[in-house]
Write a structure and sequence with these properties.
- By secondary structure, the chain is an alpha/beta fold.
- The protein has two domains: 21-46 and 274-365, Aspartate Aminotransferase, domain 1; 48-271, Aspartate Aminotransferase, domain 2 (3-Layer(aba) Sandwich), CATH 3.40.640.
- It is 37% helix and 14% strand.
- The chain contains 13 helices and twelve strands.
- The strands form three sheets. A seven-stranded mixed β-sheet has the order 2-8-7-6-5-3-4, with helices on both faces.
- It is globular and about 55 Å long.
């Protein structure tokens, strides 16, 4: 018998929705040295230059910030060779995911997206009350561009693609990206989430923005300062749009004061210090290689990620291993259910985090 109470004061798509807090510290973790390898965070703090910029900006926290980032926007526009009025900002790219769906998809209209994709998108689908066509990934976890395009129908308003994808860490090739841009219909908004853009470029990946500029139809691409710039706590992301009309629509569904007062100053300092970002990317690649080689030495075949996380089929229920790892003070996560229920995912950390993980996973799996 179904005992779930129905309500009338909340829209049906928001009823009985559980809350999951990914940053929750559990009782057995309090006061202990925890290896945080579950949230794809940068293990290094912001640079001293960024910290100083934040401290100076704190003097003006009695004032509302300008959410258009008037000093940072022209810097990014110049470096990326795009018009200033095609950029807008959000509280991390996470806020922008929902905004993009809200401006393009009405309830019961269609979204096409990979089946295996960042979990936050499930919440986005629910918020806009969309009909979603979940396209099966390839057997290796990569996005099947051909199947994505075939899934588009006359009711499709938004196509979502994440490259590199979370939770696989795999990116689209230049050929795949061009095919997606050229063959997505001109009346459908093509949304490319590039939260791990810097990692893809560091690994020799294609320039997605350059490809998107040649698309006839509308498009948006989201990026963030959370990962390669060590600013996850500042919560600053941006979206580059094919037109100013899309920018203004996103601004309409965002809060007027959606950024914190220190975000722009911190991001400017980080943007002007590319050598620190390169340091983060270089160290990340080193630890990723250690993790991949360590898992291979145990007889497993991890996905060849280009990001700051690695996923791997461990041939047994991943949730059980995640629990045992957490008992040892090492926080990792699962990839998802279905055919990926045996996959763990872990973020790259400091060398001591890598060592702790490899020692523990060997003990648990053996």
């Amino acid at each position: 018998m179904n005992n779930i109470k129905k309500t009338t004061h909340i829209r049906s798509n928001f009823q009985n929705v559980p809350f999951w807090n990914p940053t929750k510290i559990f009782d057995h973790e309090i006061g202990k040295n925890i290896h945080r390898m579950d949230l794809n965070e940068c293990p290094y703090p912001p640079s001293e230059r960024v910290v100083k910029a934040i401290q100076e900006a704190a003097r003006d926290l009695n004032r509302y910030p300008d959410g258009t980032c008037p000093s940072l926007t022209p810097m990014i526009a110049k470096d990326l060779n795009i018009p200033e009025d095609t950029i807008t900002w959000g509280g991390g790219s996470t806020q922008l995911l929902t905004a993009i769906a809200e401006i393009s998809v009405a309830p019961n209209q269609n979204i096409v997206a990979p089946k295996l994709v960042w979990k936050r998108f499930q919440g986005v689908y629910k918020i806009v009350d969309a009909n979603v066509t979940h396209v099966e990934n390839n057997s290796d976890g990569s996005i099947n561009v051909g199947s994505m395009l075939s899934a588009i129908n006359s009711d499709t308003k938004l196509v979502i693609c994440v490259t590199p994808n979370n939770p696989t860490g795999l990116m689209l090739s230049e050929t795949e990206m061009k095919k997606l841009c050229e063959e997505t219909p001109d009346d459908v908004l093509l949304f490319i989430d590039e939260a791990y853009y810097e990692f893809a470029i560091h690994a020799g990946g294609p320039d997605v923005l350059k490809i998107l500029k040649n698309r006839r139809g509308p498009w948006v691409v989201t990026r963030t300062f959370s990962k390669a710039y060590a600013l996850a706590g500042i919560r600053l992301g941006y979206v580059i749009c094919s037109s100013n009309e899309i920018v203004n629509a996103i601004r309409m569904v965002s809060s007027t004061f959606n950024l914190n007062g220190m975000a722009e100053a911190a991001a400017i300092a980080a943007w002007e210090e590319p050598e620190y970002s390169k340091f983060i990317l270089d160290r990340n690649a080193e630890e990723r290689e250690k993790v991949v080689n360590g898992l291979k030495a145990l007889g497993y075949n991890p996905i060849e990620s280009v990001t700051n996380f690695v996923s791997c089929d461990i041939k047994r229920p991943a949730s059980e291993v995640v629990t045992k790892m957490r008992e040892r003070g090492i926080r990792i996560s699962t990839v998802g259910g279905g055919e990926f229920e045996n996959f763990i995912r872990l973020s790259m950390g400091l060398p001591e985090d890598t060592e702790a993980f490899l020692d523990a996973i060997k003990e648990i799996l053996e």
